[in-house]
Amino acid sequence: MVRLNLTNPATQNILVQAGAGGLARIQALGSQSIMAGGNISVLGGSGTGMTAAIQSTGSSQNIGNTYIYSNDATNNVIVQGGSGSGSSAKIAAYSGQSIDAGQNITVTGGATGAFAEVTTAFGSQTIGNLNSSYNYDQTDLVSLTGGSAAGAYANMTTIGNQTVRSSRNVTLAGGNGAGSGALLQGGSGQTLTAYGNLSVAAGTVSDAELRQTSGAAQNLSVGGSISVTNAAGATAGIVSGGSQTISAADALVMVSSPVAGARAEISANGTQTINLQGGAGANDKASLTVLNHSASSGSLAQVKATGNQTISMPFAKAGIMQVGDTASLGAALVASSADQTLVVGELLVQGGASAAATSKILAGTATTGTMTISALTGPIQVLGGAAGSAAIDPLYLFMTTNGAILVQAGNAATATALITAGNIDMAATNGNITVTGGTVAGATAGILATGTLNAYASGNLAFIPNAGGATMTAGAATGNNIFLGGNCIGCAGGLFGNFNISTGLLPVVPLGLVPGSVLVLDSISLLDPTAGDIVALLDDLDILYGLLAMTEEGEITVDPLRRRLPKCY
Fold first, then answer.
1. What is the structure's pLDDT at 133?
2. Count of CB atoms within 10 A of residue 360's CB?
3. Could you tell me what percentage of the chain is helix, strand and coil, using 3-state DSSP and rounding each to the nearest 5?
4. 3-class DSSP string for 365-409
5. pLDDT per residue over 98-154, tens digit each?
6. Which one, 10, 41, 438, 537, has least CB within 10 Å?
7. Distance from C-alpha of 140 to C-alpha of 127, rounded to nearest angstrom
8. What's the CA angle centered on 108, arms 105 and 110, to 5 degrees?
9. Which of 478, 525, 522, 535 lies closest to 346 in space, CA to CA?
10. At 272, phi and psi to the nearest 5?
């Protein structure tokens, strides 16, 4: 049944609805435009196999865009699977399409096999609008929700380029049953802009994914929060087959599903850049949280890239980056197979409640890869849990914080806390470096460099072995230096290797540098301003650099040709 409800000269609502015993179609071989001042609805029927569709089988189509007549877009575009088994609903085009609404675009699955989809076989696909130039209504919401039974998926897909735009939120929610997931998928590129939040939530035994399939770029710009959560499904993810660039106020990646191998992830098969800006409020700090509360075998929460990975926060809004928590039951990971740069407020790597609850930050391979960490406003902590371990493990590590560095094992032999690398250069400009063993034998806390190890602390370097043991080890025979503003406490039993130790030094902080200021990197030496200023340095071109190493006199050395990091905004 096709019904057109007309009010004055303009079409008000267009309803394409299958029934108990009949199909419904608006179909063209060539291109077509479907416009309405009210709603455009495509609804599956109540009978078995009673499908509904708006489709162009041989060309492109425009749904809801009425700007050619100087009108606002259609109010709502609704695609919904029916209550009958297999009674699907779809908007489909052969060679590209645009779906526009001034309010909401919703795609919702129905009963068993009653899927809902917006699909483009070839060409590009554009969903929603942010057309503010001519004062037209902007799309408020783009929503994909799986249905109530198996096979009732909700998809928006194309093998071409996909653009999704919303002035408020974009939500993907899996349904109830296998194959009742939610999928937003581009082929030759994917761009999403949402002024509000982006939510990707798996359902019950169903997935939810925002996915770019090819090696092309995925670009996401979100004004609010990003959440990727999996409470009961197999996978919740933001996944790119190529590079990935993400901007948001903050991000949460969390899995708690009982499904074997369950995961929640933000991942890229290429370079990955995540800029977390914080919210509009004074206390709305940027943050990245990666948690695994799933006890299922093989479960994983991760942020991962096969190429270079950069996660950054601006100084004024820099909050915590947290991998794992004390309640974790499975593995949590932030990893790059190449170089990794983390510019955050503070860093916490926390082992969990079970031996499977390992929390790690990894970078590189056995032969290449550098990790650079700048904690701008707080400490760096690597903490074993009740039974889970915590680790930072690159090939080369350059790490500096405006707080303290704490490496502390937990309460079981499996709850180790380790920082390991080939070469390590680390600095705590406003606190101690403390290595604390766990409460039982085997709960080791350690900082281990198979090559050289250089460490600076404005306070003390302290080893508290307890039952588990606490150590700092350098494998290189020479070139290992420890510079301290305070003292070396417990070093006789904690240090392994040949170290040059200097105590009673002044803090390593550039002259006159205050939070948010800019410094030309002509010379940086030991000075004595008040502690707590920014340690990720800016040059005269506003380019951010990280700590490279320290000389035997305790000076910071910077290589501007090799250690250039992305600028923070």
1. 55
2. 21
3. 0, 45, 50
4. CCCCCEEEEEECCCCEEEECCCCCCEEEEECEEEEEECCCEEEEC
5. 999 989 999 999 999 999 999 999 999 999 988 765 556 789 999 999 999 999 999
6. 10
7. 12
8. 155
9. 535
10. -135, 125
pLDDT in tens, 14-38: 999 999 999 999 999 999 999 888 9
Measure the CA–CA gap between 408 and 226, rounded to whole angstroms.
Answer: 31
Distance CA 116, CA 87 (A): 9
| pLDDT for the residue 150 | 98
Among 237, 244, 240, 107, residue whose Cα is nearest residue 180: 107
Closest CA to 220 of 244, 243, 239: 244
Token output for 110 = 């129905």
**Residue 227 token pair:** 């959440």
Mean pLDDT across the chain, nearest whole number? 88
Contact 291, 325 (CB under 8 A): yes
Model pTM greater than 0.85?
yes
* CB burial of residue 33 (10 Å; 0-12, 13-18, 19+): middle
Q: How far apart are CA 431 and CA 378, in angstroms?
A: 10
Could you tell me what percent of the chain has a pLDDT over 90? 77
The pairing of beta strand 10-17 with beta strand 2-7? antiparallel
Q: Kindly tell me if the per-residue pLDDT of 564 is higher than 70.
A: no
Two structure tokens written together for 540: 């005269």
**Distance in angstroms (rounded) separating the CA atoms of residues 319 and 225:** 14
Q: Beta strand pairing status for 225-230 and 250-255?
A: parallel
* Segment 194-228, tens digit of pLDDT: 999 999 999 999 999 999 999 999 999 999 999 99
* Secondary structure of residue 493 in the 3-state scheme: helix
CA distances (Å), origin 487, targets 69, 393, 479, 490? 77, 27, 20, 10
Q: Which H or E run includes 489?
A: strand 488-489
Q: Is 456 exposed, middle or buried (0-12, 13-18, 19+ CB in 10 A)?
A: buried
Beta bridge partners of 201: 173, 229
The one-letter code for the residue type at 171 is T
* Run of H or E residues at 161: strand 161-166
